[in-house]
Amino acid sequence: MDRSTNLKRLIQEKEWDVAIIGGGASGLGIAVDAANRGYKTLLLEKNDFAKGTSSRSTKLVHGGVRYLQNGDISLVLEALRERGIMRKNAPHLVRDLSFVIPSYDWWSSPFYGIGLKVYDMMAGKLGLGPSTILNREETLSYLPNVNKDGLRGGVIYHDGQFDDARMAVSLALTADKEGANLLNYMEVTGVEKENDVLTGVRVKDRIEGIETVVKAKVIVNATGVFSDQIIRMDQPDSKPMIRPSQGVHLVIDSTFLQENYAIMVPHTTDGRVLFAVPWNGQVVVGTTDTPVDEALEEPIPLEEEINFILENASAYMTKKPLRKDVKSIFAGLRPLAASEGNNESTKEVSRHHKIMVSTSGLVSVLGGKWTTYRKIAEDAVNTLQIVGGFPEHKCNTENLPVVGNDFKADFDDPYHVYGTEVSKIKALNPKLAEKSLSDTLFITENQVIWAVQEEMAITLEDVLARRTRCLFLDAYETEKIAPQVAEIMRKILKKDSQWAEAEMKKFNLILKKYQL
């Protein structure tokens, strides 16, 4: 992907079939599907791809055990099917992860064991492995740091894990390969209409400062928690369609699990589940479910959320995590689709997605979750075909490999997220291919070069937060290596020292929000 080339195409193209606003999971999925079906597709993202919710998940590709418990069978069936498709199409990014539910009551293991057998059955041929009831000794062998006091046994089951931001980048590359035109840092500032029908959008390039009007036959709003802002550009008096819910995650050292198995805590003090998940050599613990009134680009973790996670995790761990153990903290906002007259707490609101069409033709994608991104895209493209009066083409993404698709990926190799592209990255400078810029995080100069030249990374944050995951894994170590990465980027981009200083200043403001 080359931004300058894509910018020229944006200006030269007289009219697009589809203009997608939003470069998160849904928007990128729609871009892949629409371009694959042969539509002239444009994607516009105000910040960077997956800057928001789509890089801040629990890193799970799952059917949702909790949704099964809530009786949302249709969502579980859909998500389990999509989990299998996602693993098939992106095996270098999605893998099987074993979860253990420790039990401290005589009835817990049989109760959860039966429920998880139903979960296995619903997954069918796309299942990742059978769930099994464990005795006390087996549970301790899988979770050496689990609280031993009163432990009776547990249940082990299988779900999926992935790298969310790297999946987003891979989808962007896939959409590009399919012929879509993608631009990050391209803000939609308004809409254009003729006879009350949408004909295009007004955009501003946040890098170059250029403003222009883009014509499109169909406009898709895939902006997640910011959907209401776009809807109000089209229909100023529209009622809120999104109920944002904040999820916070803490990242701690791998010694808090000791083995490559995750803990799933089925009952916390607020009634939702809690996960402690091994990820890239660390442990991600979360998540919370806190209703918020305002959708921020950089959500702020609340003290009560931090305390909630530490308190509930400590109840299940012998070595208990403290504030000083937190290496990084990140918050994301779930774009839950609001129901009229719905007074439920956000943890009870369905994660089903909705596709809505306004009287002027704006197609809005509301709700959903990462696991079902492909099905969300399929439904959205099926809808926009009708809105645009396009010749109907069937969806092919169920069998469309994501760029980098590699069934032989070694998940112990930090390069695995690039899949089949690894050899190209290492070839940039073979002498530097294995030389990390950090003593504790894996990030090489080759990766920085690749991110800028091939993956449309524009800012220091793009490289350290999403092209690599340094900021999410250890914000304190990232602070140490940031100046070195900024200097590498400066040379690649042929910028002056003032550019590097400005980037460091911007990045440090963001960095502090990932540190306790």
Provide an overview of this structure.
The protein has three domains: 3-53 and 166-241 and 343-395, 3-Layer(bba) Sandwich (FAD/NAD(P)-binding domain), CATH 3.50.50.60; 90-161 and 243-337, D-Amino Acid Oxidase, Chain A, domain 2; 428-514. The chain has helices spanning 3-12, 25-36, 65-69, 73-89, 108-123, 136-142, 164-177, 227-234, 303-314, 373-388, 422-427, 445-454, 460-467, 470-473, 475-493, 497-511, and strands at residues 16-21, 41-44, 60-61, 94-103, 132-135, 153-162, 181-183, 186-194, 197-205, 211-221, 242-253, 262-265, 274-279, 282-286, 290-291, 328-337, 353-357, 363-367. With 516 residues, it is an alpha+beta fold. The model is unreliable at 345-349 (pLDDT under 50). α2 (25-36) packs parallel to α7, α12 (445-454) crosses α15 and α15 runs antiparallel to α16. The chain is globular. The strands form two sheets. Strands 3, 4, 5, 6, 11, 12, 13, 14, 15 and 16 form a ten-stranded mixed sheet that branches. Strands 1, 2, 7, 8, 9, 10, 17 and 18 form an eight-stranded mixed sheet that branches.
